[in-house]
Specification:
One of its GO terms (cellular component) is endoplasmic reticulum. This is UAS domain-containing protein. With about 375 residues, the protein is α+β, with helices and mostly antiparallel strands. It has a domain of about 220 residues: Glutaredoxin. About 60% of the residues lie in helices and about 15% in strands. The strands form two sheets. It has a five-stranded mixed beta sheet with strand order 1-7-6-4-5. Strand 6 and strand 7 form a beta hairpin. The chain is rod-shaped.
């Protein structure tokens, strides 16, 4: 056995991955350094297992999540905790106060509003051992994947969004659709046939574009590789249907490993849509009800504000009228007082003039002296 084959065998034995081509790609990506390749697998899976074990165990005990090797018993097959490096790649989704939650009750999932947040270790300030993928890097990887895919297989394919996984998950939540995930293994021998004959077929691509938000990633890229670890992809081609869950998790509704015909893929995807239809419709109706409630509140607030402003305007007008009447009354009193004072002054002045005239007459009478007595030599002035 050659050294290369020996390393592949050791890698398979330690990690549990059975796909030799995938193991070869992972080792090649780490320059055939066995320790680094194993660390890239175990470092993310260990941390994911720690943060998600308690919640997942509760679902497994209830019988709603299948154990290893079993088929999906209902809508939710299993809950998967995403590594911090993927979640933190979309700060807009992490910091959003509103997200989609999933609860399993009697085998049926129902949507409700919840926070999609980080794990307790991140909330307490502990850092992850893996470097975070920035939003720009995640989007850049998605754009590179779409460009490479189209250059190799043409333009007819599912409309893979050119953004990171978490942003694609948020988009599916906003549009009330499931997220179709395709993990691309460029060197796998089954990849070309699956892409050309199935994924790029007219009927399948149209079906996916109409009913899903599609996200694709190459396992050679950072985010695609981490998602392959999170989804435990062991055989390629690999497709999955997921939806957002609470606490840094996604719900895996369907996974397809190995080559499939368009008809087989359509059958699987149609079944998932049928099983999730009531959930998505309920979520859409709930969101519409919330929007209507918000709109009604806004209309009520606007009507209250308008009524309040009208009342305030009437109160201002009333005060202005009162002030105007007070000013007019004060002006009338002032004018009346002025008229009375003017009449008083006129009366005083008239009395003074009369007194002066009387005094003047008296003075004139005194200056003429007494009238002479009547006689023949006295002429009496009759005037």
């Amino acid at each position: 056995m050659s050294a290369t084959a020996d390393k592949v065998a050791q890698f398979q034995a330690i990690t549990g991955l059975q796909d030799a081509d995938l193991c070869t790609e992972i080792l090649s990506a780490h320059n055939w350094n066995l320790e680094q390749a194993i660390s890239s697998i175990t470092s993310t899976s260990d941390s994911d297992h720690t943060t998600g074990t308690a919640a997942t165990d509760r679902f497994e005990q209830s019988g709603f999540i299948a154990g290893e090797g079993a088929g999906p018993p209902g809508l939710a097959w299993k809950l998967i905790t995403l590594p911090v490096s993927i979640v933190s790649g979309s700060l807009g989704l992490v910091s959003s106060a509103v997200g989609l939650g999933l609860w399993v009750v009697g085998g049926v999932l129902s949507y409700s509003l919840s926070m999609i947040g980080l794990s307790n270790s991140v909330a307490n300030g502990e850092s992850s051992s893996n470097p975070s993928v920035s939003v720009s890097n995640a989007a850049s990887e998605a754009m590179d994947f779409v460009w490479q895919f189209e250059s190799e297989y043409g333009g007819r394919h599912p409309n893979f969004v050119t953004e990171g996984f978490m942003d694609a998950l948020q988009r599916s939540r906003r549009e009330f659709k499931l997220l179709f995930v395709y993990l691309h293994s460029p060197d796998h021998p089954d990849t070309p046939g699956f892409c050309e004959g199935t994924l790029c077929s007219e009927v399948l691509s149209a079906f996916v574009n109409e009913n899903f938000v599609a996200w694709g990633g190459s396992i050679r890229a950072t985010e695609g590789f981490k998602m392959s670890n999170s989804l435990k992809a062991s055989r390629f081609p690999f497709c999955a249907v997921v939806m957002a869950a609470t606490n840094q998790r996604i719900a895996l509704l369907q996974q397809v490993e190995g080559p499939k015909s368009p008809e087989e893929m359509l059958t699987l995807l149609q079944r998932v849509l049928e099983e999730s239809a009531s959930v998505l419709v309920t979520a859409r109706l709930d969101a519409e009800e919330r929007r209507n409630s918000i709109r009604l509140r806004e209309e009520q607030d606007a009507a209250y504000q308008a009524a309040l402003e009208a009342d305030q305007a009437r109160e201002r007008q009333r005060k202005e009228d009162e002030e105007r009447l007070e000013r007019e009354a004060a002006e009338a009193v002032r004018k009346q007082k002025e008229e009375e004072e003017a009449r008083e002054r006129a009366a005083i002045e008239a009395a003074e003039r009369e007194a002066k005239l009387i005094k003047l007459r008296e003075q004139k009478s005194l200056s003429l002296g007494p009238e002479p007595e009547k006689g023949p030599d006295v002429t009496q002035n009759s005037g």
